[in-house]
Amino acid sequence: MAGAHHDHSHSQAHDHGHDHGHDHDAGPDPMMKRVQALEALLVEKGYVDPAAVDALIETYESKIGPRNGARVVAKAWADPDYRQRLLEDATGAIAELGFGGRQGEHMVAVENAPGRHNLVVCTLCSCYPWPVLGVPPAWYKSAAYRSRAVLEPRGVLEEFGVRLPEDTEFRIWDSTAEIRYLVIPERPAGTEGWTEEQLADLVTRDSMIGTGLAKSPADLPAEPAA
Amino acid sequence: MNGAHDLGGMQGFGPVEPDATSRGGTAPIFKSDWERRVFGLTLAMGATGAWNLDMSRYARENQPPAAYLGKSYFQVWLHGLETLLVQSGLCSRREIERGRAERPAAAVPRVLQAAEVAATLARGGPVQRASERPPAFAIGDAVVAKVMAPSGHTRLPRYVRGRPGKIVLLHGAHVFPDTHAKGGGEAPEHLYTVAFDAVDIWGPEACPGSVRVDCFEPYLEPAV
Asked: φ, ψ for residue A143 (rounded to 5)?
């Protein structure tokens, strides 16, 4: 699909309590006008409650995101019994931490290992495990990623700065039904005895999609001096 | 349908552009306010029950290829939403163009209230269903993805049609998108993850490994 159109941040005031930046130099954004007109129509018809629309947006902008998935992975690294439950019944194991629901109703966890790398894509649209990762980033939904992740995963990973050994076995998971995949990255060396909270700081969003690896302890900002 | 949405294996789109989050920073989820509202409106209208998720996907993908590829992601969503509103009789095209109601509202099964949002999202929409038929395939079975070109919605990507693979996961019976998208009911079918060797899809230059695709039973036949 095309790149971003109408990218500037102009937005006209809503009548239901938004506080966004307003840049009136750029003139009315035709996309914003069209969407505002549509929302006004749907509210006038009584099909949507604008406060519910606000709540839906707020949920995915500030409540549900990859910190959830990082907690799942950190627990799997720290607790072998939990790891086993996650591999056998990911939906149930993720629900133990209070995560689940829309776009994560049927979860499968797939584990990286030396010589084996998992990568998740949705070639047909943009299926993504919302309860553990939030809504997908723009690149995950792009034609470039959707077309090439299945064909040349090694080249795609290099665009993320990730180089794997030549003999690595790739397992590409194309989310064509309602199963949603979570990658369990390899636990970095030098983290023996770390708590789940410490481990979670090493788990990046991309490492749970497969376009990245977990951070190493050296990547974390230095502890402030006591 | 063999539409432009079925992107697996196409070339020419250029490199993937990781975002600031990929580089250890933070990137906004929405690039502009209209994207934010399209996202919220699409979810809120989906919650009315006037259509289902498979109908939504078909409404987004059912466009001339140049139109689909010429739109940004949330422009595709907006196109899908407007299409469904008109098809379902909830709004006319003229009302959408004008942003004003010209006739009384149609009845919708539900209107999502703000107080119900958290519980509704937490409940989600599970699609696994009981089935009286046992699955036709077992883990390890050799299968072939059927060669087919249905004009309606399907979730079997073109790049695996006709390719041999092996069943690696069983998921039970799930709502069948091809039927559900047409309003033909849930018609549950057994769902499998099938591993296709990358060499069987892309040839000898492929990266070593497999592409794993979730395939409904009607998409598969036993390998001979």
From this structure: -60, -35
Helix (H, G, I), strand (E, B), or coil: what is residue A78?
helix
Q: Which of A9, A125, A147, A216 is catalytic?
A: A125
**Coil/strand/helix, residue A117:** strand
Residues B53-80: what's their mean pLDDT? 98
- The pLDDT of residue A14: 41
Sign of the alpha-carbon torsion through A131, A135, A141, A145: negative
Encoded tokens for A23:
């840049």
b/e burial code for range B117-141 (CB count within 10 A of at least 16 → b): beebbeebeebbeeeeeebbbeeeb
pLDDT higher than threshold 70 for residue A4: no
The contacts of residue A123 (CB under 8 Å, 6+ apart) are A146, A147, A149, A150, A174, A176, B6, B7, B8, B9, B157, B159
What distance in Å separates the CA atoms of residue B108 and residue A165, rounded to the nearest whole number?
Answer: 55
Radius of gyration of chain B measured on its C-alpha atoms: 20
Q: Is B91 on the interface with A (CB under 8 A)?
A: yes
For residue A9, the model assigns a pLDDT of 40
Name which of B155, B150, B152 is nearest B192 in CA terms: B155
Q: Shortest CB distance from B211 goes to which of A103, A134, A172?
A: A172
pLDDT at B73 over 60: yes
What is the 8-class DSSP label of residue A217? Answer: G
- Which residue is closest to B1 within chain A, CA to CA? A124
CA nearest to B167, candidates B131, B142, B198, B130: B142
Of A51, A53, A64, the CB nearest to B41: A53
- Say if residue A17's pLDDT is above 60: no
Establish whether A11 is a catalytic residue.
Answer: no
The amino acid sitting at A6 is H
Is A142 labeled as catalytic in the residue annotation? Answer: no
Q: Which residue has the tokens 């050799």?
A: B142
CB-CB contact of B121 with B140 (8 Å): no
What is the distance between the alpha carbons of residues A164 and A154, in angstroms, rounded to a whole number?
8
**H/E element holding B58?**
helix B53-61
